[in-house]
Structure formats: C-alpha cells, structure tokens
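Hey Z.,

So I finally got round to the s-citryldethia Coenzyme A thing we talked about over coffee. Here's the setup:
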Amino acid sequence: MTDTITITDNRSGKTVTVPITGGVFSSAALRELDPNLFMYDPAYLSTAACASSITYLDGENGILRYRGIPIEQLAEHSSFLETAYLLLNGDLPTADQLAKWQYDVTHHTMIHENMRKRFVDGFHYDAHPMGMFISATAALGTFYDDAKDIFDKDSLDKQILRLVAKVPTIAAMCYRFSQGLPFVSPDNALSYGENFLNMMFKIGDDYAVHPTLARAMDILFILHADHEQNCGTTAMRVVSSANADPYTATSAAASALYGPLHGGANEAVVRMLSEIGTIDNVPAFIEGVKNGDAKLMGFGHRVYKNFDPRATIIKKTAYEVFEVTGKNPLLDIALKLEETALKDEYFVKRKLYPNVDFYSGLIYQALGFPVDMFTVLFAIPRTVGWLAHMQELLSDKDQKISRPRQWYTGVDTRDYTPIAKR
Ligand code: SDX
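And the result:
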C-alpha cells in the first residue's frame, strides 16, 4: 500500500498515479488525463482550495488549533490581541513584540471624522448594523491612498493594523448610531475588549467595564478569530486572489458571514429561543425540526461531527458571565434543546451538535448587546482570521486568481428569435 491514488479514464484507457500528501492529491492529475475533465464538487465538500498553516480542525474529534496551539489553551491563557498576533505572524509574540503590537493597535483605533459624522448619517436610523459594518469596512479603504499597495509588506502590515484596530470602533459607531446615542471615542487606557465595551455602552462618567465581562469578551473574540476555510474566509480568499485591497476583501468576507447559515446563526439562535418561549414548547419545536419545518439554529457543522470545542468553552464562559449579569432566562430553553437533541436519533444520526453560535448569543444578550449586533461581534475578531488568510494567499506561489470551472447543463446552441415570433 502506498500513499498514492491511481485514476483511470476508461474512455481513453489513460491512467495516472499521483501522491497523496497531507490527505490531499493534486488536481493536476485530472488535467494530465484530460484538460477538459473537471471534478463536480458543489459547495466544495471535497475540495482543498489552498494549503494553509494557520488553523487546524479535526471535525471527528472536535479539535481546533491556531498555529498548532489548542483553542482551549488560548482561551485559558491568552488575550485576543496576543492570539491575533499569533494568527497573523505564525508564533506567539515575545513580551516586547506584544507590547509594541498592543501599543500600535491602541493608537490606530480612531476613525476619520468624515466616517463618524457624514458617512454613517447616510444610513436609515434602524439600519442593520451588519449592513453598516460591511459598508464601513469597504469605505474605510477610501481614506488611505496606500490601501492597494498589497505587495509592499510594510503597507499591507499597516492596512492590517488599521483594520484590526478600527473594526471595534466601527462596530460601536454602528450601535451608537442605531440607538441615537453620541459616539464614544476610543480610550487608550483600556484593553481591546474593555475599550470596545466602553465605546458600546458608556453613558456618563461613572461607567466601568466589569473585569469578568471584559475577560468574557476577550475569550469570545479569541474563539471567533479564525476557523480555516469557512464561507467568509473563502470569500476573503477569492476576492483577495484578484488582488483587491484588504478593506474591500474584508467587506466581502463580512457579507458572507452575514448569512444566517454562517455568522448570522448566533442572531437566529436567540430569535429561535425567544420564539420557543418556554421549556414546555421544546418537544414540539424539535418535532417541527425533524419534520423539516425549521432548522435547530446553532446546531450542526460542515466539519465538526462531534462537539464544536468552542461551544464547550462558550457554555462555561456563559455561567461566569451570568454570575455578574444574572442568568439569561433563555438559557434553560437552550439547555433543554441541547439535552433533547443529543438524545434524539434525528440529530445523532446526522451528527448534529451545538456549534459556536448556540450559546454565544446568550452571553451577548446578557452583556447588553441587541440581537442585531451579534453577527458584528463575530465579524470583529474574524477580521483577524480573514486578514491572516489574505496574507497567506498573497505569498502562496501555488495561488492565482480564483476561477473555478463548471458543469454546463444548459441548452445547446440556438438562434435568436425576433420578439414578434416569441
Ligand atoms: C458557522 O464553516 C465554518 O467553520 C463556520 C463557522 C466558523 O467559525 O466560521 O464554524 C461558523 O457558520 C457555524 C454554523 C452556524 N450555522 C448554524 O447554526 C445554522 C444551522 N446549521 C445548518 O444550517 C448546517 O448544520 C450548517 C450550514 C452549519 C452545515 O450544513 P451542511 O454541512 O451543508 O450540512 P447539511 O445542511 O447538508 O445537513 C446535513 C443533514 C441534512 O439533513 P438530510 O438532508 O440529510 O435529511 O443535517 C440536517 C440537514 O437538513 N441539518 C439540520 C441542521 N443542520 C443540518 N437539521 C436541523 N437543524 C440543523 N441545524
């Protein structure tokens, strides 16, 4: 037995044998057999679109590692900015590197007054903050004439720094605008998570972020920072492959994340729990899911066929937050849903377990965030993962502009019919 695969095209009798490396084999083998032969793989279920050293997932065993470090250890010992440095640079920073990174991020959190005063005023008062976030990230790039210098490392590093530093400010601006509240400027004395909560919720001079809540925000940011080739990151890579600037690529990735099957699920989970309303309604809701009337939002995953390790950490963090904020009443419904589903053949057979979104919304709600801010809370940390993948793609010699092929199933050639004859 060798680590190879042999493919025979029975139409021509041609055979090709190629090595299997790291669980993949090169599609060049197909081009060798027949350049017009393509693998039909909708939604890329069996396609490795890139080589990456950023994040490793083992879906069967519920393993998630950033640059080789288990997510459990990062959630326990690291900070979001330290984890961001790890994802972007490949290794944990030294004390001096971390201090410089924290200083640089802290001193790039301001956004141009034209965005705060003019751009944001163009939105309707009840605009969804994700629509605003997606627009604002793309607009941010128009303020920097070096935004497109993506092959100048110092310039790309500067754009990445700006985006990492400014997305919390943009997110808080979207929230304050929707509440009709004055914007709160970044406070350089606060940590990344604290500063975000401060910009979000500060009213009056006596507001102070509770350390448990600041830590919970940091842990949630760590857990959401990257997740290999998910839908949003794939969008980031596809747009970056055309050499778009980091701001518009981030906006494209955030657009994919906005989808309810992806990052929009945390918002959908809380709406689902609120609609269920009481524990007594859980059995009927589960029956409805099994009949195809609804999805159990926050359950299931393309890769994890076991517990999503992030869900386990988030569930533990939820209890710590509720110690401070008081228990979210929807928690009991969530626990009952999880208990019921994990014992039900429909979910067991399909290997459907709680994913990252099942409990995160309960914490966000307890922290005071409105439901329509939940996906923005996902986009803030995931901006780091998106940018790490953009960096990796731009320096990958195997990569070029993304342009998949298709299986044409349309009609054969036919002539134009004048309208009088249609
Ligand atoms: C994220 O990719 C990532 O890494 C994403 C993410 C990240 O960090 O970037 O982890 C973040 O997006 C988490 C997922 C959040 N989405 C949800 O919670 C929405 C609910 N989940 C599903 O829509 C679904 O599970 C997906 C989209 C997450 C995964 O879908 P797949 O892999 O395409 O699986 P599928 O839809 O083909 O489902 C397989 C079967 C189907 O039943 P059958 O047709 O075989 O009878 O399982 C069923 C599905 O109907 N199913 C569900 C279900 N999820 C799958 N049935 C009820 N409720 C669900 N949640």
